[in-house]
Every structure is written in structure tokens, then in C-alpha cells.
Amino acid sequence: MILLCILILLALCRPAQGTCGQTCGLRPMGTTVGSTRVVGGTDVMPGTGAWAGIASVRCYWNPPVSVHVCGGTLVGAQWLLTAAHCFVNRTNPLSEWAIVLGATSLGQSGPDVEVRRIKRLVIHEKYTPQLEYNDVALLELDRPVRCRSSIQTACLPGPSVKVSDLKNCYIAGWGDRIVKSSGRDVLQQAKVQVVDKQLCNSSDWLQGYIYDFHVCAGQGGVGTCQGDSGGPLVCQDRHAGFFWQIGVTSWGVGCARPKRPAVSSSTQYYYNWIWSTMGRKPAPAVAPAPAPLPTYTAAPLQTVTPKPTQPCPFPREKLQQFFDLLKDILRYLKEKML
């Protein structure tokens, strides 16, 4: 009977091929080689399963040629999380946009790559252009995505996750520096430091432009740039191998300048909005109405205008501890019966 229970538990814990939401944020960063894009980033190698939740948001101005506009992350079988400003000045109808998932290179195709059209665009109702307040949007895809090793959903932190304690953080995207130094359109990743909000909002840094719905990350020489908007900022869970997506890349002052970290929209702050927009029951409230952090008098900054998921799986380490304990119990029972 105990053995039967173990087999059932193993079956339940095994990620279902083709089912989105049963696993999220579990893919490793993967092997990388040096590069100069994402500003201080490295290439994400194909076939590693790295950044399996990321997508390229593209516009087809002259079909069949597509142009990468922004990044995004899969948060449900039929939903993509991105930045609202990616669509604020759009002139093309949604029918001329496409979402590409499962690719690490913009020119990649094949069985591991899926392309979807946009059925519906939902921009946060309090989004403020130029100031970039509430810079989040959800894209409902025309049909569900089939998840596999190259396509997985992102893990979004709920109210119980202490985001400030998370370390080992990364950004990723297909954005570029102002002057291109590489002709390859390969997905880039970079390890970044999350900057304390009070410091980020100080007079030497971003001078009062940071609110509770923001997350600052990056430092001089490493950061996001144009084309990375809508992409993920992720941090590793403290006790397991998966990664939480804590931010959606929103804006910055230049690219990777000292004391000018990139600013992302906090996924934890918008957790309830994401759940309710996708038509699911929201979790308990994350925060009260938006309130700015202490501000400082300064000249206006020049800004660069260039997610609910299923609960994350039970950490593998804890499952391993459970099975090790179970084996000890079985061994003990066997010895008692002899």
C-alpha cells in the first residue's frame, strides 16, 4: 500500500508534457558564452531549457518579415505578461502582431518554437504613459500554448513570498545597445543586483521617481536596454532551484549607467490584477492603493520609453527529503518484521 502511494505521488509530481501551469520557473539559467548585448550580458544557448517562459513580442510591418518590439513571459497557457508601453503608440492592428515562444534566437524555428496571434490586449486601467505608472499589460493569445522543456510558465510571487530576501537575480531579453556590436539576435541574460527602493529613490539615484509598484535592478555596466521592455526580472527561491519573476522591465535612464538602475513593474504588487484579469480567483490583497516613497526635489529625469499563474510546484529538494525519510521508515518496518 505504501509503495502504491509513492507511485501515485511520483505520477502527480511529474510535469505533464503539454500542460502549462503544472511547472513554473524551474528551468536553469543554462550554459552561456560571452557577448555584449543586454548590456553586460551573455548568450543563452539553445537547447538548455533556460528562460523557458520568455517570449518575443513582434510586429509584422511587411509580412513575412517580423520585427522584435518587446519581451514578455508566459503566465498561463493562453496568457502573456508584458509592459503596457509596448503598445501605447502602436499603429498596426493586433492582427499584425505575433508572439514567439520557445526560441533563444529571433530567427529560430522548428518543433520547439510556437507562434501565436493576439486575441485581446488588456492594459492596466491606471497606466499612465510617459510617467510609466502601472506599466503592465496582459495579452490573451488566440489559442493555448503547449508547454514542454523549451516553453514553461513563469512563477509569480504571491503575498506570502518575501521578495526582499531573494538573491541570485537575472534579467533577459533581445534588446540592444544604442550602437550594435553584434549582428546576432541571440537571447541575452545578465546577473543583476536588486537595489533597495529607498536608495534607488534617493537624490543621487532616481530622485523620487520610484513607487511601491516599482523594482530597481542593475548597476553600472549591466542592465536592460531598448527592446528588453516587457521582459522578466527573476530571482532564485531561497530554498529551492526555481526562480520567481519579481518584475516586468519598464523603463530606465539610458542603459546600465552608474546609479541609474533599470526600473521594473513589481509582479507581486500586481499579483491580484493579473489573477483577476485572467478570470481567476485573486489571492489576498498584496498592498494598499499606490503610494509613492519619499520624494526629493530634483530636475525631471529623461526616461527611456523604449502576470495569475498556477501555484509553483513543491520544491524538488523537499520532495527528495520526503522520499529519503520514507525509505528510512520502510527499512525500519522491514527490520521489525524479520
TrEMBL record:
Annotated PROSITE patterns: TRYPSIN_DOM, TRYPSIN_HIS, TRYPSIN_SER
EC class of the enzyme, as a word: hydrolase
EC number(s) stated in the UniProt entry for this protein: 3.4.21.10
Catalytic activity: Preferential cleavage: Arg-|-Xaa, Lys-|-Xaa
Alphabetical GO biological process terms: acrosome reaction; proteolysis
Classification via InterPro entries: Peptidase_S1_PA, Peptidase_S1_PA_chymotrypsin, Peptidase_S1A, Trypsin_dom, TRYPSIN_HIS, TRYPSIN_SER
Signal sequence coordinates: 1-18
GO MF entry, a single one: serine-type endopeptidase activity
PANTHER family hit by this protein: ACROSIN, ACROSIN-RELATED
Name this protein carries in UniProt: Acrosin
Lineage: Eukaryota, Metazoa, Chordata, Craniata, Vertebrata
Gene: LOC100221796
